[in-house]
Amino acid sequence: MNYRMTDRENFASFLMRMRKKGGVDQNVLDAIEATPRRGFVPSQWQDAAFANRCVPIECGEVIEGLDLQARMISELEIDPSHRVLEIGTGSGFSAAVMSRIAQRVTTVDRFRSLLEQARHKMQALRIENVQFRHADGKNGYPGEGTYDRIIVWAAFPSLPRGFLEVLASGGMMIGAIGEGAEEQVVAKLTKIGSRFERQDLFPVRFQPLAEAVAGAL
């Protein structure tokens, strides 16, 4: 007989993994629990929905493992007054989680189809504080003011100084830095004046940040 763990059991296993690693904010855990993760994972990958591994989604992209998403969002230290910019909408799960903590989330992706799918998922969950932008996010999303927090689900080859202009003074950015073919490091970048103060957190492997919007998708 095949045995399939319930979502409650899967979430409990995830919590146990997080407690061993430490450092994950309770508000983030609560937001993850309140967001139905299976609704953001393709049907053929449902058994891996709560796993500590990435799974494929449309447009050749992936949804990151739940553990990594939780750690990176937690490092942002989001509070209810914050405006958050996300580069890389993907499935929309991380934007949905952050929307339960932040004042507003603006999520940017180069694939229009991923944005539309994420928008429909948010509407079904009655999430109304997420804005969707189809754009090239290599330098953030200029033109709509600054953001208190920025998170990027891709890697920069070097310090992303172009994001300084869209990050509020004292604001914080989380992203991976390193060459695409090598192991990168997730860094916490805090804007101090006209520079970044950098704190390296943990190793990761992300795809390099792609430039330009996708024409066909």
Set out the fold topology.
Layout: H1 7-21, H2 26-33, E1 55-56, E2 62-63, H3 66-75, E3 83-87, H4 93-99, E4 104-109, H5 112-124, E5 130-134, E6 147-156, E7 167-177, E8 184-192, E9 195-204
Parallel strand pairs: 3-4, 3-6, 4-5, 6-7
Antiparallel strand pairs: 1-2, 7-8, 8-9
Largest beta-sheet characterization: 7 strands, mixed
Q: Percent helix among the residues?
A: 10-25%
How would you describe the shape?
A: globular
Q: How are helices and strands ordered from N to C?
A: HHEEHEHEHEEEEE
Low-confidence stretches: none
Distance N to C terminus:
41 Å
Strand order across the biggest sheet? 5-4-3-6-7-8-9
The count of helical stretches stands at 5
Labels describing this entry:
seven-stranded mixed beta sheet; two-stranded antiparallel sheet; 9 strands; 28% strand; globular
Summarize the structure.
The chain is an alpha/beta fold and 217 residues long. The chain is built from 5 helices and 9 strands; from the N terminus they run H-H-E-E-H-E-H-E-H-E-E-E-E-E.
Can you characterise this structure?
The protein is α/β, with parallel strands linked by helices and 217 residues long. The chain contains five helices and nine strands. The strands form two sheets. Strands 5-4-3-6-7-8-9 form a seven-stranded mixed sheet, covered by helices on one side. A two-stranded antiparallel ribbon has the order 1-2. Strand 3 (83-87), helix 4 (93-99) and strand 4 (104-109) form a beta-alpha-beta unit. The longest helix is centred in the N-terminal third of the chain and has 15 residues, at 7-21. The chain starts with 6 loop residues before the first helix and ends in a 13-residue tail after the last strand.
